[in-house]
Amino acid sequence: MQYLVVxxxxxxxxxxxxxxxxxxxxxxxxxxxLFGACATxxxxxxxxxxxxxxxxVLVTPNDVVNGTAGLKQRGxxxxxxxxxxxxxxxxxxxxxxxxxxxxxxxRHGWSRGFGYGRGSDLRWGAIGLTVLLWTPVTLGxxxxxxxxxxxxxxxxxxxxxxxxxxxxxERGYDTTVRRLRRAQPSCGVCFHVMTVPAYRCDxxxxxxxxxxxxxxxxxxxRCGCGxxxxxxxxxxxxxxxxxxxxxxxxxxARSGAVTDIRLPVFGPVSAGKTRLVYxxxxxxxxxxxxxxxxxxxxxxxxxxxxxxxAQLIATGGDTAKTPAGQxxxxxxxRFRRGQSDKDADQALLHLxxxxxxxxxxxxxxxxxEFLDHAGGLVFVVDPFAVAxxxxxxxxxxxxxxxxxxxxxxxxxxxxxxxxxxxxxxxVDTRRKALAIAVVKADLLTDLPWAADLCAxxxxxxxxxxxxxxxxxxxxxDFGEVRxxxxxSVTGVxxxxxxxxxxxxxxxxxxxxFALGRDEQQTREPA
Length: 526
Known about the structure:
Blueprint: H1 2-48, H2 61-66, H3 90-115, H4 123-181, E1 198-200, E2 207-208, E3 220-222, E4 228-230, H5 233-236, E5 241-243, E6 259-266, H6 273-290, E7 293-296, H7 300-315, E8 331-337, E9 346-352, H8 357-360, H9 362-365, E10 376-381, H10 387-392, H11 398-404, H12 411-424, E11 433-438, H13 451-454, H14 458-464, H15 468-477, E12 480-485, H16 502-511
Parallel strand pairs: 6-9, 6-10, 10-11, 11-12
Antiparallel strand pairs: 1-2, 1-5, 3-4, 7-8, 8-9
Helix pairs in contact: 1-3, 1-4, 3-4, 6-7, 12-15
């Protein structure tokens, strides 16, 4: 009986002790859960600021270019050497680091509790206390982690929405303005026409292929060297050096932000294409000055070509034939209205003058990539290469034919070869404009049978001279055709119907840069 009483007392005391422990555990459970949640909050802050054992791995520009940042290439351009936005890469690594940090905190608590008192009578008591106390800590840490993840997802989602909206607005505005300006940049050397230029960082000189708003920045981008770069073509063009996406040669300043007009001048061998280009540029300079605008040259190649051509025109010297077998770079002139520095008041004019041999042969013609991207074309017709004109120049006027150095190819044949080449390469010529310029008019002004031509009735004169097939075919092929009579010598004032600037002024106007009034009334409509 005595032992029974002792056993009952011991059992009662044990039950009381267990009850007390359970009571205390129940009282402490909320505090332990709060402790676990606070530990998760502290660990989250430590991870985000890069402190503690489980520091997140930083996403660097090397990860971006090496493909280890988790970013996918979108579009034709590779990812550039730049720091990615937090929303697109770093948050994933921070989440992994947070998970490891919280898991390590919980695992460490369980490990220490279960390992305390190993080999002694206290071990089972330590295990029991660990289960009672660390269970709510684990639960609190898990709930705190869930809350952090939800809050992070909400903040990240809002950030994504705002960031994406800003990117869409910036990119849409940039694209719309450039499209309205017809500011598609082009290279005058390799003739590549691109959506956007590449840009060179003004800090480390690294080339960025696509600076537009996107995964690497919305309003600004940070280059791998730390330099902050603008993320729209309109802003980058005012500060950074633009490069060709194909050959990496420098483009003209403001390329991609100002109106870009590409005009090939084509015709038979020795038709007078180069002289028309030289005389046209001189006349364009004078015409621009008369209209309150300025024509200038940014690159040395174009400037030297213009100075050489201007001297030839001023002195009346003979124009050297363009070498066959090689494609010369474009002559690029910049037009600016008055003293304005606005991109909307500027335009780049690229004139392409390849040798006539390229237009006589279908195989050689395929190399002329600049034809595919032309805003308009100038077709040069040498009247002295027309059989009807040569028939009129018999007898005493035979010397006039020798003086004219007539072209060696048939105008109609050269036109047909070029037109077929454009169509074979998928160019919609109905969306293009064609200026047909009858040159060497200064040698025809005193001839009665050329009076209508010199008076501006170019289309009718071409039909009379036997080029009616050329006229009809050109008007079927192109969306708009206009006819000009041109004298590429000095003494022709700006605005005259014989000014060599007139074909270019008309095509400039159609390309988005009006240079004064349209002299349509002085010419015969198509």
